[in-house]
Amino acid sequence: MEMVRRLNIRRRMKRILCFLLLATTAVASADDERVDDHGYVATSWAVLWTAADAATGLLGLEGAYRPAPKMPLLLRAFVGRGSGADGGEDTRTTLYHLRVGIEADSCTPGRGACVFVGGDAGWRVSETSTRGPDAMTSDTSGSLYVGRLGVDAGGDYLRFRVETELTSDGGGIQLALMHRFY
């Protein structure tokens, strides 16, 4: 039963990622006066919820590179580590994410505010440990698919970013402080 549920989640996530890829074409065509930035680096904090109703805080580092000038698509990568309670005060979960993906953005004239949409694929590792007389540790890992939608705003170099994420095992909200480079 668990295997069927995971396959259904993966099918839904693949459909969502395909939709996001198609949506990038529409976002890309809306921005004709692009500034020649080459990408960004950012430090981020996220709160993720899993299908098991467990909340986890995740600190991350992400970066993106625009392969061609005036192109609305960016290649991106994310690495993060987090921890949280998972079901009780004696249970602790540590979470690791490693993801790569694409992102498309469209901005106002002067790039004061931008909207972006993207999709990532990667690997997730979760380590859960319990304390007490029945102490035990379990490790789970697997593929991870993420659809993202958000906005960023700020100056030419320093910007603030807010996004929502829908993952193959839950979802979340992410805040980031980013530095765009030229």
Q: Quickly give the structural class.
A: alpha+beta
Distance between the termini: 50 Å
CATH class wording? Mainly Beta
Indicate the CATH architecture. Answer: Beta Barrel
Give the percentage of residues in beta strands. Answer: over 45%
Average pLDDT metric: 82
**In CATH terms, what is the fold-level topology?**
Porin
How many strands in all? 8
Describe the secondary structure blueprint for this structure.
Elements: H1 2-29, E1 39-50, E2 55-65, E3 73-85, E4 91-107, E5 113-130, E6 137-154, E7 158-167, E8 170-181
Antiparallel strand pairs: 1-2, 1-8, 2-3, 3-4, 4-5, 5-6, 6-7, 7-8
How would you portray this structure in words?
By secondary structure, this protein is an alpha+beta fold. It has a single domain (2-181), classed as Porin, CATH 2.40.160. The chain is 15% helix and 61% strand. It has one helix and eight strands; from the N terminus they run αββββββββ. An eight-stranded antiparallel beta barrel has the order 1-2-3-4-5-6-7-8. It is elongated and about 60 Å long. Mean pLDDT is 82; it is low at 24-32.
In brief:
This protein has 182 residues and is of the alpha+beta class. The protein has one helix spanning 2-29, and strands spanning 39-50, 55-65, 73-85, 91-107, 113-130, 137-154, 158-167, 170-181.
